[in-house]
Amino acid sequence: MLVCEKRKRIKPFYYPPQLLLKQLVMILLYAWLTGWHKHAFLRWLSQLKNVLHAGAGARQIGCFGLNPHVVWEMTDRCNLKCVHCHAFGSETATYEELSKEEGMALIDQVAASGIRSFVFTGGEPLLREDLFELIEYAKSLGLTVFIATNGTLITEEVAKLLRKFDVGVVIGLDAMDPAIHDSIRGVEGAFEAVISGIEHCVAANLYLHLNIVASVPNFTELTRIIEYGDKIGVYSYFIYRFVPFGRGAEWRDSELGKEDFGTLLDLILKKQREVHAILIPVAAPEYWAYVLQSRGIQNRRLIRFLGRFFGGCLAGQGMLYVKPNGDVWACPFLSRSAGNVRTERLDKIQANLGALSEMTKSGSDCNGCVYEPVCGGCKTRGECLLRM
């Protein structure tokens, strides 16, 4: 039985004040290290409401975004058949999903823990009939809420509801070429539907974030997607290095090789300097080492200091990934459970995640590496892909 906490609201964004100061230093350091063009950065920073939404409770920026945050894969049901899906999304549920009441109890525990950022994902979360009840409940406790969706089910009415509850919208877009996007998403017409969903979000003036999974078939599309997003006012991006996990294990030949991975890091840094949004790599913690390397920063003391702001891999130290049945993973690409929220308290599971992180450290490439404090290596593989 999932433990219920006494309802406790999250403290406002300005408490504690030293966290707000750290966040300001963190984003200024980020802009300096990446060489973010001053006018583009100031335009991003001037959108204060989005800044606070993006950085809710953040202690670090790392692989997969904020440290800390919770992602709840509330269903594995999905209306698409994406070839890279780590969750095996399908038309029918394969898990005994947490009920609405169990979801509320989970949200209670997250709020009581002080974590401020909560993501509803799937599968396709818009297939859960109780989604907006759960969003409303999370908002009532002061949580900052995002929904990660394939975007195809966002009608004008859905966009208005998301606006009503001040939900940040995370949408997957894998190509500007409809044929490529549809082939990756496994359903004809997926591109037309997602663009329609994005347009509804723009019209509703929602916080809009794009997820891009970088793989061999869509590698030449990445720049076009980023530039499209910049044109319509996307506020942030996750650019995933495709990990052959879940259904994606059958698509292994599409994983980027070492040379393409280096090109991907080059591309992210180049575009970050130009665009009006923040670009965060996922499953590529080496990016933070790459950025410092590009600035010629090798001083260990300085790198340890920067590691307080840029954490690299967040598995086990900044992310709780809750599966539909309540199992908690350190990362959606690491199928090791640290406990189940139906039977264990969240604080105990968090402690287990830290121990699990130590057990799943990446390979010997990290030993003695000067950039380890800002990278830590990707725990989904045993080798470093950074060109040294």
Number of strands: 13
Low-pLDDT residue intervals, each spanning 5 or more residues: none
Q: What Rg is obtained from the alpha carbons, in whole angstroms? A: 19 Å
Indicate the percent of residues in helices: 25-40%
The neighbouring-strand order within the major sheet is: 9-8-7-6-5-4-3-11-12-13
How many helical elements? 13
C-alpha geometry: globular
* Element order: H for helix, E for strand: HHHEEEHEHEHEHHEHEHEHHEEEEH
Mean pLDDT: 93
Strand content: 15-25%
**Head-to-tail CA distance between termini:** 50 Å
Question: What does this protein structure show overall?
Answer:
This protein is of the alpha/beta class. The protein has helices spanning 17-34, 38-46, 48-54, 100-113, 131-140, 156-164, 178-185, 190-203, 222-232, 258-274, 286-294, 300-306, 346-359, and strands at 60-62, 65-67, 69-73, 117-121, 144-149, 168-172, 208-214, 236-241, 278-282, 310-312, 319-322, 327-331, 334-340. The strands form 2 sheets. The chain has a 10-stranded mixed beta sheet. Strand 5, helix 6 and strand 6 form a beta-alpha-beta unit. Helix 4 (100-113) runs parallel beside helix 5. The mean pLDDT is 93.
Provide tags for this entry.
three-stranded mixed β-sheet; 388 residues; ten-stranded mixed β-sheet
Topology:
Elements: H1 17-34, H2 38-46, H3 48-54, E1 60-62, E2 65-67, E3 69-73, H4 100-113, E4 117-121, H5 131-140, E5 144-149, H6 156-164, E6 168-172, H7 178-185, H8 190-203, E7 208-214, H9 222-232, E8 236-241, H10 258-274, E9 278-282, H11 286-294, H12 300-306, E10 310-312, E11 319-322, E12 327-331, E13 334-340, H13 346-359
Parallel strand pairs: 1-10, 3-4, 3-11, 4-5, 5-6, 6-7, 7-8, 8-9
Antiparallel strand pairs: 1-2, 11-12, 12-13
Helix pairs in contact: 4-5
